[in-house]
Amino acid sequence: MQRIGVFVCWCGSNIAGTVDVQAVSDALAHEPGVVHSANYQYMCSQAGQNLIKEAIEEHKLTGIVVCSCSPRMHEATFRKTAAAAGLNPYMVEIANIREQCSWVHKDMATGTEKAIILGKAAVAKVNLNAPLTPGESPVTKRALVIGGGIAGIQTALDIADAGFPVDIVETKPTIGGKMAQLDKTFPTLDCAACILTPKMVDVAQNENIRIFSYSEVTDIKGFVGNFDVTIKKRARYVKEDICTGCGLCTEKCPMKNVPNEFNLGMDNRRAIYIPFAQAVPKVATIDPEHCNMLKNGKCGVCAKVCAAGAIDYKQQDEYISEKYGAIVAATGFNPISMDKFDEYAYSQSKDVITSLEFERLTNAAGPSSGHLVCPSDGRHPHTIVFVQCVGSRCASCSEKGKEYCSKICCMYTAKHAMLTRDKYPDTEVYVFYIDVRTPGKNFDEFYRRAAEEYGVKYIKGMVGKVSPENGKLHVQASDLLADKQLHIEADLVVLAAAIEPDKSARPLATMLTASMDTNDFFTEAHPKLRPVESPTAGVFLSGACQGPKDIPETVSQAGAAAAKVIGLLAKDKLTGNPCVANSNELMCNGCSSCERVCPYGAITYVDKEFRMPDRTTKVRRVASVNEAVCQGCGACTVACPSGAMDLKGFATKQIIAEVDAICK
Amino acid sequence: MKKELEAIQSEVIRRSGVNPKKCMRCGKCSGTCPAYDQMEYHPHQFVYMVESGDIEPLLKSDSLYQCLTCFACVDRCPRGVEPAKLVEAVRLQVVRRQGNNHLKTDSIPALIDEDMPQQALVSALRKYSK
Amino acid sequence: MQKITADMLIEKAVSLLEAGTISRVLGWKKGEFDYDVTPYVFADAESLKKDFVFDDFCGANFSKYLVAETRKAEGKVLVFLKPCDTYSFNQLLTEHRFDREAVYAVGIPCEGMADINKIKEITGDGISSLTSKGDKIVVDTIYDGEKEVDFASVLAERCVSCKSKKHVAYDELMGDEGDITDSARFDEVAQLEAMTEDERFAFWQSQLSKCIRCNACRDICPACTCEKCVFENPESPVENKAISDSFEEKMFHIIRAFHVAGRCTDCGECSRVCPQNIPLHLLNRKFIKDINSFYGEYQAGAEVGSRAPLVDYTTEDIEPGEAVMKGEGENA
Amino acid sequence: MQVNGEYKPLIVAFCCNWCSYAGADLAGNNRLAYPENVKIIKVPCSCRVNPMFILRAFQRGADGVIICGCHPGDCHYTSGNYYTRRRMSLLFSMLNFLGIEKERTRVEWVSAAEGAKFAATMNEFTEAVAALGENKRLEDLRCKR
Amino acid sequence: MRKCSLDNLQKVFALIAENASLYLPVDKVGGAVFEKWQEGTSYSNALNTVRSAKDFFFPQTENMMEFKTKGKEIEVVDTRDEHEDFVVFGVRACDVKSFEILDRVFLCEPVDSFYANRRAHGVIISMACTRPSETCFCQTFGIDAANPGADISCWKTDSEIFFEANTEKGEKLLSSIAALTEDTDEAAVEAQKAKIAEIMKKLPLAGITPDKFGGGKTSEFFNAPQWKELSQSCLGCGTCTFVCPTCQCYDIRDFKTNDGVIRFRCWDSCMYSDFTKMAHGNIRNSQLERFRQRFMHKLVYYPENNEGIFGCVGCGRCLAKCPISMNIVKVMKSLGGEA
C-alpha cells in the first residue's frame, strides 16, 4: 500500500479563484492510500517545494500527487523536488486543475468538484505507480550534418571546433549551398563568396570534418547517441583523392551544352564539371546523363587529358555505414516553381526571372560576368520591375503558393533594387509590394536607403499581369495609394518567389522519425524554448529546413544547434525515458503484432525456455523490448492481444484506475 | 438606412460566400482587372468597402455594371477572396431592390452590333436581369 | 458426401508412418454416434484403422492441437487440412505459433460439412445411425425409422457461405484443387447493417445475453492462441469469469472480436461450438467486411507473413467518423 | 450520468501528451470554456488507447468517449495516430453494428495549437452526447447503484 | 391424480402465475430455454432446455453482499434477493434428479443459505419424457424418465395433461389449481409409462452402466492410462460444466463498483486453468488433471461421499454441446463402463 501525499496548489488566485482548494485537499485526504493532504499558495515556489520535501520525510511518503497547473509546466519541477527528498521521481503525478479546470470553468462549485475528481484520478494512478529508473545508453561521439549549405557548414565547424568529429553529407558535388550562388548579402552588402568561401576552406581543412559530397543519406536506424546511418556516395567517376581540381578536363570535354544548374540554367557547362571556382571539394564530377563515354562508351577525352589519372569510368556508387551520436538536419530551401503563376509570363519570356536568377545575373562569376542584361537578347534593361510576394502569403485555399511569409524577399529585393540603381543609375526600378517587412538589425534603414537615396520606386500594390509585347514586357499593376492602374513597359521583371523546404526533407524526416509541419518544414521540439531541436531525441535543426530565415539567423541557429550537439556528445552516457514498453514473457505468445507496429524497431524476439506449471519446460518465442530504443508511444500495448505488452508509467491498470476514478 | 445597409452588407457576404476579411490589401485584383479604367470603384476597393460597410456608394455606382465578370481577380487573388463574386452579389442586391431589370429586354436590339458575340448577349442578360 | 474417403486418408497416413516421414497423425476419431467426431492424435496404423474417420461431420479444426503437438519434439505430425483449415494454418504460421518443419500437411478436398442440428430439425431426435449416400444422408431413428435428407439442405451455415475450396497451404494435396468461391458470406452482416440502430441493439442484446461465458468460442478459435487470455489473467484489469448485468458478455465478445480482427480467417468455428447458438461469426465477419471496405480486400491466412490490417496503415486511411458511416453499408 | 437528479453527460477524453493534451492546456490558457463533465486522461499517444479503456469507461458510467491525438502525419511517434485511426474506425463501426449510438464515440485530431478547436470539439461533442441521453446500451447496472 | 385438457393449460399457467413467478421451457432460436410465463407464452415441446434447470437454485452469478466505501469507511450491505416464490414447470426427470445431487452439496452443513432459500421458495413441476434423444442415458443412473418426480409429476398426452403431487408443496399448488383440473384414474399415464419403458430399451446408450464406478474406486481409476488420450482432445472450455445440471462448483469474486465492492459468486469450471488456484499456485496444472477431476468427481468422489449416488444424471447435454464431442459416456466406456 502506498503512502500518498496530496499537495493542492492555489496558483495565487489562478486556481484558488475558481476552486475551493481547502475542499479539494480535504476531500482527497480520505482517498485510499492518502496519508497527508495539504494546500499552499504556490507549490512550485521554493517554499512550496520545501513543503513537499518535508512532508515526504515526515510522513514517509511513497508517492505524491500535486494538484496544480499542467504537467507540461511543472511536472519536471516536482519530480526533481521528489528526487531531492529521496523519492523516486516517477512516483509523482500531477492533477491538472488549472489549465483543465480552474481556467475553463467559472463556477466555484463545479470547479471544485471537477478538481476533486481529477485529484482522485491522480491518486488512483499513483496507487499503482512503481518507481522507475531510466535506462542508460552510450553515446557515439560523432555527429552527422545533413546538408552542406551555410547552415550545415557553420554547425559542422562549431562542432568540430569543440573537438568532435563531424561528417557533412551534401547531395551536390560541392558544399556551399544557396549562399554560394548569391552576389551580395543584405544589409551590409558584403560579397557572399568573400564571407562564405573562407568558411568552406575551413571545413575542407578541418581535421575533424569529413565531407561526403555528391552523397545522400539512404538509411537511418538507431536512436539518440547511437544512430546507424548509411550514406550513399554516388559515383562521380572521378577519384576524389587524386583529382587536383585543375579543371583541364572541364575545358576539354566536348559535351558543351549541358544546362548549368549552378547558374540556374542560364548558361551551359560540360558533362564533366566543377560547379564553381571555389568549390569544396574542388573535384570534377562527371554528369552521367550527358557524358558520351558513360552513355555510349565513346569519347574518353577527360581521361586522356587528366594528368593525375583521376578519371574512373567504372566507379560505382559506394555505401558507407557510420555510427553517429547526433544528427543535424540542414537541408535548406529552394524557390518554389513558378508554374502556377502564368500571369507573370515566367514561362513565356526569358526576361521574367526569379530573384535567385537575378543574383546569378549580377554576380561577377555568373553567366553574364556580372553585367545586368536581359537574358533574352543581352541588352541592357532600362526598366526593371520587381514583384514581391510571388507565392508567399497565399491563402491555403488558393492552392498556388505558400501560406507563410518567406521572410527574406523584402530585404533581398531592396538589395537588388539598390544595387541596380547604384550600378546603373539610368535604370528605372519599380518594386511592387504588399507590405515591406524589415524587422532586423539595420534592415529598415537599408530599405529606406533604397527608396530615399537610390530612388527605387516603391509602389504599394501588386502586378496583376505581365505580357510579352514587341520584345518588351507589358506590366499591368495597381497603385493602391494613387488609386490608379499602372501600365509599365519593362525590360526585365524579377519575381520574388516564395521559398519552400528542399524536397529531400520529407524522406529524411521519415528516416529520422522526426515530425514536420504541413509545409514540410521540420517541427521544433518547442517553438520558443527548444527551437533547434527536433522532438525526436538526438536530431537537431539548422537553417531554413526549420523555417524561412536569412543568413545571420541561419548562422546563429546553426551555432545553437552545434551547441546542443556538443552538449549531447560531451556526455558519456544518456539516460533514457523510463516510461517504456515491457513485455511479460510469461504471457507473450510471440505473434509479432507488437513488432509490426513499433515505429522504432525496438522489439525483437528471443527464444526462451519456460518452466511450465506442470513442471515441464518449453521453449517459446517471446518479445523483448530494447528500452534504449523504445520511445514509449504504446502502440504495441494495443496490438498485443494477450495483454503481455504494457507501458511503464502508463500501464493498463493505471489508466483503467484513472478511468474508474473519473467515472465514479 | 444604416440598418438597411447593414442588412445589405450581410446579405452580400452571405450570398457571395466571400469573406472580405481575408483580403490583405495587395491590390492584385485591381492590378489584374481589364475594366479598371472604366470603373469608379476598383475591385480592391469593392472588397474593402463591403468589409467596412461603406456600401451606399457602391449601390449607386456604375462600376457594378462595368465588371466584366471575367474572374481574373478571382483566379489571381492570393488569398482566395474572389472580388468578382462580391461585385456580382452587390449587383444582384441593386437589381432586386430596383424591382426591375437594369436592361429591358426590349432595349437590347438597339445595342447590338454585328460583331457582338452571342455569348456576350447571353451573359449580359444573365447579368443585367433578375 | 465427401469425395475423399476415410480409407484413402488412412492409407496415406499409414504409408507416411511406415516411411518414417511422420510420427503421428492429427485426425478425427469415431464417436459414440455417427455424427460426433473428436480430434485425436493417432500414433500407429492400428489405431488409425480402428478409429480414424472422415465423413460429413469432420468440421472441427486442429489449430489448438497443432500448436500443442508441434511443441513436442517427437518428429513430424501429419495433419489433414480442409481448404478452410489451411487459412488458419497459415495464420498460425504468420504468428509463429508453431514450427512449420514439425508438420506434414496434406490438403484434402471438402464438400462442406453437415450440421447435425439441421438434420435433427428434419428427422427429429433419436438418431440411431447416419449414412452418406451420394447427395443424400440416410438417417435411421428410433421413432420414425429411416429418413433421407438432402445433403445440401443440411449443410452447415458456415459451409453454405464457404469462402474457398482452394488450399493455401500443404505439403501434399489429395484429390482435386478447388477455387476461391464467390460466396455471399457478408449478406447476413449487411442485413444487420440495414436495420435501425435500435433493432441492431435489440438483436445483439438478445443474442449476447444468452452467453454463459463457457469460453468455447475462444478455446476453439484458431486466432485465440494466447498463452493466457486477457479475460483469464488475474493481472489484467478485465479478467472476468462471469456474465453479469449485461455488460461483461458485451465486453468479452467485442474485445475478443477486436483481438482477432484482421487475424480471423472466418472459419466459423466460434458459432459452431457455441452451446447457446449465438451467431458469433457475425461479429468477426463485420470486422472482415469493414476491413475489406475501408482498407481493401484482405483475407487472413491467404499468405504466410502478410501484414494484418490492424498492424498496418496508410497515410490516406479513412477517418473514424466516415468509417462508421461507411460501415453502415450500402443502406446508409 | 446523473448529477443531483439531472442528466449531465460524462465525457472521458483520452488526449495524447504531445498535441491534444497541449491543445487542452491552450484552451485553458485562453480561458475557452467547455463543460466541466469533460475529464481528460493523458496518454503518451492516442495509440495507447486500448478499446478496453473505452468500454471500461462506458461500463463505469461514461456517456461519451472521445480520443484526441495529433493530426495524421504529425504524430510525435510518427505513426501512432495512424494505428489509432484504423483501430477506432473498426471499433466504432463495430459498436455501431451492435447498436451502440455512434454519436457516443469520436476521434478528433487536435494539435497543440488548436486550443479553440479543443474547446469547440468538447462543447459540440458534449451537446451531441447530451442529446442521446444516458448511456444505457453499454452500462453495467452494478456500477449504477 | 388430476388432469386437465391441454386447451386449459394456459389457464392453469395463468392461475399459478397469480401467486408466484412461473417459469417454463419456451422455444427460442437455438433451442428451448426457461422463461417467465406471461400471457401468451407457449410451452415448448422440446425434449430439454439448452441450459439445465439448476439456474433456479444456483444461478450463474449471484450477488452475496455489498461493501460500500466512503473515504476510508466500509459499510456492509445485505443485497440478498432469493426470497421470491416461484414455480418451475416442465422439468425433466434428469434435471429433477440433479436437484437432489445439488441438495446434498448445498444443504449439508454448513448449509448454503442462498441455495436453501431458493429451494424453499421454489416449487418444481416435472414432466415425463415421451421422446428421449439418442444422447439420453438417465436410466444408467437409475432415473425413470416416465416417473419424473419433484413436487408435482406431470404426463402429457396429445390432448391432456396429468398431475400427481408428490410433496406437501406439490399438494398445495395442485389444490390451488383444482378449479381447472379434475380427478382421473391412472390408466392413460400407466399406458404412457409402459410405452416409455419400451423406448428406453431401444436407446443407443441403454447399455452404459455405472457399476464399475462408485465410492472407493479412486485408486483403481486415478492413474488409468486412458486419461491421457481421453484428455488430449479437451480444449479446456467450460461448456460441459456450464450446461451440466449437476456441476456445482463456483468461485467467489469481488467486483469493484463505483462506490464499493460487490461480492458475488459465479459458476466455475474445473476445466479452467485457474480453477482452485490458490496462493501457492494451482493444484491441477495440466488439462489431464483437470479433465480427470471432472469425471472422477462425478463417477467416484461424489458417490463416495453420498451413499453411492453418482454425480451425473444422464441428461446428455454435454454430449450434444461439447465442441469436440468428448463426454462422460466416452469416458465411461473407455474405462470399462459398458454392459
* CATH architecture descriptor of the largest domain in chain B: Orthogonal Bundle
Compute the average pLDDT of chain D. 92
Terminal residue distance of chain D: 12 Å
Unreliable parts of chain B: none
List its salient traits.
heteropentamer, A: 664 residues, alpha/beta, Rossmann fold, FAD/NAD(P)-binding domain, Alpha-Beta Plaits, 5 domains, 5-stranded parallel β-sheet, 34 strands, 28% helix, globular, D: 145 residues, 4-stranded parallel β-sheet, two-stranded antiparallel ribbon, 4 helices, 6 strands
Describe this structure in words.
- The complex is a heteropentamer of chains A (664), B (130), C (332), D (145) and E (339).
- Chain A contains 19 helices and 34 strands.
- Chain A is an alpha/beta fold.
- Chain A has five domains: 124 residues, Rossmann fold; 184 residues, FAD/NAD(P)-binding domain (3-Layer(bba) Sandwich); 82 residues, Alpha-Beta Plaits; 166 residues, 3-Layer(bba) Sandwich (FAD/NAD(P)-binding domain), CATH 3.50.50.60; 68 residues, Alpha-Beta Plaits (2-Layer Sandwich), CATH 3.30.70.
- In chain A, the strands form twelve sheets. In chain A, strands 10-7-6-18-29 form a five-stranded parallel β-sheet, with helices on both faces. Chain A has a five-stranded parallel β-sheet with strand order 20-27-21-22-23. A four-stranded parallel β-sheet of chain A has the order 2-1-3-4, sandwiched between helices.
- Chain A is globular, with a radius of gyration of 31 Å.
- Chain A starts with a strand and ends with a helix.
- With 332 residues, chain C is an alpha/beta fold.
- In chain C, the strands form two sheets. In chain C, strands 2-1-3-4-8 form a five-stranded mixed β-sheet, sandwiched between helices.
- The longest helix of chain C is centred in the last third of the chain and has 15 residues.
- In chain D, 74% of the residues are buried.
- In chain D, strands 4-3-5-6 form a four-stranded parallel β-sheet, with helices on both faces.
- Chain D has 145 residues and is of the alpha/beta class.
- The model of chain D has no long low-confidence stretch (mean pLDDT 92).
- Chain D has one domain: Rossmann fold, CATH 3.40.50.
- In chain E, the strands form three sheets. Chain E has a four-stranded antiparallel β-sheet. A four-stranded mixed β-sheet of chain E has the order 3-2-6-7.
- The model of chain E has no long low-confidence stretch (mean pLDDT 91).
- Classes of the chains: A alpha/beta (664), B mainly alpha (130), C alpha/beta (332), D alpha/beta (145), E alpha+beta (339).
- Chains A and D meet through helix 5, helix 6, helix 18 and helix 19 of A and helix 1, strand 4, helix 2 and helix 3 of D.
